[in-house]
Design brief:
Length: 373
């Protein structure tokens, strides 16, 4: 199997199990989530299967805990080509019988095979297929369904910086490009802290670009990592930029759980919407866009107001829900969890992140000054 197929399979497995590592669970919640995952239909890469067994999910989680992303890549079976408990043709027949009539139990299927053995694959007289073997096969194939648990709509909150970054894109104003004399639309990529007390309101990074493509997003993402460290989770919507193969590989390599909001469920984007409203009211509405002299000028003004460093006005203004400034909150929590902060800063960006951010001819801004980082 080539490396591309191995990456595709490992990324799929990581995407399925990542939710189990994204938060703390109350008693019974993890079992309910496991049942929900097993009941779903999937499009497995390089496979005709559409379901996943609970035992398989548990195996993937164990492998990820022990070896990280690399451990999720498929390995050649040690018993490849050898006979197992059920021959492949017989296993396929059992699955077909169950799919033909989901009400068939393992006992009934075993009785049918005993009375009418499959043509061309007779069952030896000394061998009897017991119902437990059939039931185990059906469970592994996800064909034994249970009732799905109720949807959990609680707010997600985190106590410390670096637990989660939330990313979203804002369609910004049109500004003049001095080099061409024409006006171009801007887009703001922002990386926000988790919502709710006691998390801080310090924004890891935000920046305007002339496009909302993958290179712009990855450039902003890299700056957020360099400024505030690697988060445990990255929460974003379902846009094509957030589902790119390259982003999935980067997050998996850094141990970041990539979480996508569910379609048609806008409740999870309230934090970003609130931040963008504040930015429009307190920043964009205060300037005459006719006087903005290019993208660099717009970003310089943005960072003076807020996310370009710790000197911004937003970071030094008392927040209504914190009763202190976001910067003071950040520094206090960093002091409380120094071991976590050291962990966040002990990382190296993977080589795969760098070339894509340095391609020629891109509308990416100049590097930061040292005091801004």
């Amino acid at each position: 199997m080539d490396e591309k197929k191995q990456d595709d399979i490992a990324l799929f497995r990581f995407g399925v199990i990542s939710e189990f590592f994204s938060r703390e669970f109350c008693p019974g919640e993890k079992s309910a989530l496991l049942r929900e995952k097993v009941s779903q239909t999937y499009s497995l890469p390089h496979s005709a299967r559409t379901s996943i067994a609970s035992a398989t999910l548990k195996d993937w989680m164990t492998r990820y805990r022990r070896g990280g992303f690399e451990a999720l890549k498929p390995k050649e079976r040690s018993d490849q080509g050898q006979s197992r408990t059920l021959p492949p043709e017989l296993a396929e027949l059992i699955i077909a019988l169950k799919e033909e009539n989901p009400s068939r139990s393992a006992t009934i299927i075993a009785r049918e095979l005993e009375l009418a053995p499959p043509i061309g694959h007779p069952i030896p007289p000394h061998q009897r297929i017991v119902p437990s073997t059939i039931h185990r096969l059906l469970v592994n194939q996800g064909l034994v369904h249970q009732e799905s648990p109720a949807k959990d709509r609680r707010h997600f909150e985190y106590a410390y910086p670096g637990e989660l970054y939330q990313s979203d894109c804002l369609h910004g104003p049109r500004i003049l490009v001095p080099q061409t004399g024409r006006r171009r639309k801007t887009y703001l990529y922002a990386f926000l802290p988790p919502r709710g007390y006691p998390a801080t309101r310090v924004v890891p990074h935000a920046q305007f670009y002339f496009d909302e493509g993958l290179l712009s997003f990855e450039h902003a993402f890299k700056q957020a990592l360099l400024k505030k460290g690697v988060p445990l989770r990255l929460y974003c919507d379902n846009g094509s930029v957030y589902r790119s193969h390259h982003l999935q590989v980067v997050c998996a390599s850094l141990g970041i759980i990539l979480i996508h909001s569910k379609a048609y469920v806008p409740q999870g984007k309230g934090k970003a919407e609130r931040f963008f409203r504040t930015l429009r009211m307190q920043f964009l509405n205060q300037f005459d866009m006719e006087k903005i002299k290019g993208l660099e000028d717009l970003n310089s003004r943005l960072w003076a107001w807020h996310p370009g460093g710790t000197r911004g006005e937003y970071h030094r203004t008392i927040h209504s829900s914190l009763n202190e400034t976001p910067l003071d909150k950040w520094m206090r929590l960093v002091g409380l969890r120094s071991c976590r902060v050291q962990e966040l800063w002990s990382f190296q960006l993977p080589n795969s992140l760098t070339p894509k951010l340095q391609g020629p001819g891109r509308d990416l801004p100049p590097p930061y000054e040292a005091e801004d980082l």
